[in-house]
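Supplementary Methods. Inverse-folding protocol.

Structures were first reduced to a discrete structure-token string of length 160. This string, shown here, constituted the complete conditioning input.
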């Protein structure tokens, strides 16, 4: 019978991505697919390429994470970096979103889906990690460029 045909005994790559509320990628890290999510959290937060404003009492900064980050080590990292954590616990049922609010994890999944449309990222042909990471970072920069161009070309609504 042989090995699983979908596995093919190849190593995989995990992309850990942090995005803003609209889905714009701000930091990305890659590692082996067998690494737990919470072990990449520190590197992902430190990979943010724009300087973030300091959180204050009036304007806290929220970080929404999925159940893969439900451990004391991840909560400690989030608190160390000054974020307010939103981590769903294992076994906790999914709550329906309030009307007019989109699901928080959907934003990250949409960005990962967009990145997967780039052929060089979907199937990793690069042998070296730094080459693959460069392609992912280039795709993120392309995302921001296209987003900026789209917003500049949007007509301004005028009152009649």
């Amino acid at each position: 019978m042989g090995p699983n045909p979908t596995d093919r005994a190849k190593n995989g790559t995990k992309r850990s991505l942090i995005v803003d509320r609209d889905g714009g990628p701000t930091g990305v890290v890659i590692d082996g697919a067998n690494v737990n999510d919470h072990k990449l959290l520190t590197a992902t937060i430190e990979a943010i390429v724009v300087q973030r404003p300091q959180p204050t009492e009036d304007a806290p900064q929220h970080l929404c994470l999925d159940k893969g980050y439900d451990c004391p080590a991840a909560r400690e990292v989030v608190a160390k970096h000054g974020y307010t954590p939103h981590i769903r616990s294992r076994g906790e049922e999914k709550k329906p979103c309030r009307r007019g609010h989109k699901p928080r994890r959907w934003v990250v999944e949409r960005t990962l889906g967009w990145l997967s449309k780039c052929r060089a990222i979907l199937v990793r042909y690069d042998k070296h990690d730094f080459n693959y990471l460069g392609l992912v970072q280039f795709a993120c920069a392309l995302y921001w460029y296209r987003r900026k161009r789209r917003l500049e070309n949007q007509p301004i609504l005028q009152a009649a």
